[in-house]
Fold each of these.
Amino acid sequence: MAKILVTGGLGFIGSHTVVELQNKGFEVVIIDDLSNSSIDVLNRITSITGIAPSFEKLDLKDKPKVQAFFKAHQDIQGVIHFAASKAVGESVDKPLQYYENNINTLIYILQELQKLKTANFIFSSSCTVYGQADELPITENAPVKKAESPYGNTKQIGEEIIQDTCKVTSHLKAIALRYFNPIGAHSSAKIGELPIGVPQNLVPFITQTAIGIREQLSVFGDDYPTHDGTCIRDYIHVVDLAKAHVIALQRLIEDKNTSNFETFNVGTGTGSTVLEVIQSFEKVSGQKLNYKIANRRAGDIISAYANTTKANNELGWKAELTLDDAMASAWKWEQEIRSK
Ligand code: WQD
């Protein structure tokens, strides 16, 4: 049973990926510094799969600790690297914190992978690397544009670091998965998105408004050049996204990759406006949502949704769950965690 390291494995996407890895028979070791997650997620994962992942609380910025970890785990077959800071707005205020946490940690992990006999590396990237793409839907060949935030820049720089390292490390194979907008929760409602403080992202703000934690949702602008004036995004169910990671890892382990650094867009291929997301929530919850139209949010792009041809045809992965499935699961999760 191949042993896989999942960094940030107690986070939103990480925890869902650990569940899917265990479902496929992988042995999972989680590293998490608990800066943006809770140790309780470990028990929740175990309650879903019946298998307790190994866990080490470790700050990946501590290079000697990273070296010691890999020395003790020479049998790791693959790494899925989620651990990073990911709040776009915060990254503008604290750029050095983001460069240190997102770049140094990546370098330390890659340095250790260079020492192993074989290394399969899956990198959590983002459609944010495209900025506002000139052509929609967005393909992997779309030009990478100057990042609009230090967060986005760490994803662009991260991909370049990995690509350059793969060029000089013949045994290292890597895939960067460029996520669109992950939403929703596991059907068990035992794991899901746990934003700390006021949610920056749309869907947790919707569910927190509906359950009464937030007074009202502000829709950031309805004067965009879209069919209803609100921004378009490609909202992908987190379980579909998690499965894409397992398929990408299997691709590398089975040597099916066509080069030792590949990128794939991971989205549904369908764009939804903010108002359509609200309508989906109202449909699946049976509740009217309290929202108002507010000013545009600085830095928002108008529209982004994936061309999924490469992921479908080469990776052999396709999103199966719908926006309604995702909104229903997000609502069930919100109700579950507030029922405690
Ligand atoms: C979606 C739409 C907002 C909140 C970001 C990062 C991306 C990834 C996901 C980390 C936009 C609108 C939102 C609200 C609103 N993060 N909105 N009211 O900005 O597309 O992507 O988060 O990997 O890299 O860039 O996601 O959910 O913040 O916004 O109207 O209270 O919802 O204007 O149009 P975004 P989001």
Note: Residues 86, 88, 126, 128, 181, 200-202, 205, 217-220, 231, 233, 274, 297, 300 surround WQD (CB under 6 Å).
Amino acid sequence: MTIAVIGGTGLTTLEGLVQVRREVVRTPYGEPSGPLVHGRLDDHALVFLPRHGRGHTIAPHRINYRANLWALRELGVEEVIAVAAVGGIGPEMAPARLAFPTQLIDYTWGRQQTFFENDLDPVTHVDFTDPYDPGLRARLLQAARQLFPDDVVDGGTYGATQGPRLETAAEIRRMARDGCDLVGMTGMPEAGLARELGLRYATCAVVANRAAGVSAEPI
Ligand code: HPA
């Protein structure tokens, strides 16, 4: 089974990854964020793709999410660990914590959010009740707890905003009322597209800051 890591802000290279080769993958949906890196981390083969490009040049609303996920599946990837920097809304979502959300709400707009562009077919409406794969999420949570026992949050709802600007304090208050615990700009359509392709997908959210208006500190 091949695992992929999609790196977010702050994770454009994977420490300890022994690079085996880089592969340029073309897809019917255009170019992924960059060449995909095949490598080994400890004893595991994995594929690494920095979501924002190697030089962190691609803004969240400009990422070709469809090409990224299509390319991963093309390489035989079955599980995707999506690392994402987020803002913390809920009180336990303090900076430097790792959270493994169970739910999401999509506030993005104008992004290519499906592979089913044309005629309806029976699989168009994928089940997205649980947007993150429970088995993969549980394994990530367990591993993170071993490494950082005091800094791991089990669960939470991720709100995906359009960006690239940060949110207003009122937007964050509304998201809190909606039940969001975390806010980020890249969680959708990535998770939905992964589900459409049948990839098991879970997010490791790295809390980078308190969301707008949550603390007196400037972001
Ligand atoms: N809002 C949206 N995306 C983010 C934030 C935030 O506060 N922090 C890191 N990614």
Note: The two ends are 40 Å apart (CA to CA).
